[in-house]
Amino acid sequence: MKKQAAFILASLLLVTAGCSQAQPEAASQEIVKAKVVEVVTVKPQTDPVLLQLTGIMEAKRDAVLPFGTGGTIASIGAVKGAHIAQGQLLATLDTRYYQKEVEAAASQVTEAAARKSKTLKGANEEAIEQQQLQVTNAQNQLAKAREDVEVGERLLAGGAISQSEMDERKRALTSAEIGARNAQLALDSLRRAAEPEDVAIANASITQAASQVERAKKSIDDARIEAPFAGTVVDIYKQIGEQVSPGEQMIHLVDLSEIKVTLDVTNDEIGLFGKDSKVQVVSQDGKMGEGNVTFVAPVMDKQTGKYRVEVTVANPDESWRGGMMATVKVPRKIAGFLVPLESVGVSQANHYVMAVVDGSTVKKEVKTGQLVDDQIEILSGVSAGDQLLRSGITFYVEGQKVEAKGE
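-> structure tokens emitted (407 positions)
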């Protein structure tokens, strides 16, 4: 038993001695791993930077042409889609009534001139009698014209005649009133000796008759529509035989030889547009052309808060049409470096970036310039070759260990 106890005790002592020996210390100091970050390298701008603005194409000239007077359409010399030369006759009204007005007014000029001649020469009894007959005849015509107007108003109310026929009766009444008045004036002048007042009245009659001739001729001119410019017929709103009123829309004409693109430009960008400067224009189908800046608004539009700019583009084949979208590209000057917008942070009133230098982050204060799409211009604070955190810079502090990845 003593031997067995001694053996057990010796075993316990060996175990205790083994456990009491010092174990090798494991590295208690934790190794800090560098965080992998995406960076962008600052590079000088070699490719041209363009400002791109979108606008709507408009025709160089766009007009809806009316008749200057009313009446019945007699002819239409154009069809939709037709190419029209400047000065080409497009449509006419029936001018037979106006031709009669011209003839009647011309005869009144002749009569007024003859009356003046008689006034200057004096008149005999035979001339007075003849003029009295003319007065009677003119008064009869006036009475008949008044009756025709009264009857015509009743017929018009019942739908028996058209408005144009009623208008013709009224014009006949006006002409009869003028004729009766002139005949009476002539008779009065014959009954008294020629005096300066008589001569003045005779001259006034001539002037009035001449004015009627001019008005009648103008009505004939207003019964024609001629193309004010070369272009393409977009629409024709009336047909031959229809009635048309003065100023009513008749023919829509556009000139597509040039296209105008209107832009709304901000205060920061308006300096890029100079009068007569050249710009690039791209249509929505990818066709490119050179445009000329033809107008730059001198003041800001109060409603949009922007400046209006107009760009004109030659369109000889008329492949560009009004209403299409167009993109205008203008070169813009870059004085610094362009970096992603998310690479720049704001601290109070200053801008800054987080650069990677020797594996650690370094905060650099920068001065920024213009925005270019999703990039921002840095004017100072960085140099070519600097590596900047691309995004998430607010989650990093200066001196933090990082491993750069990317550009």
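Residues 1-30 have pLDDT under 50 and may be disordered.
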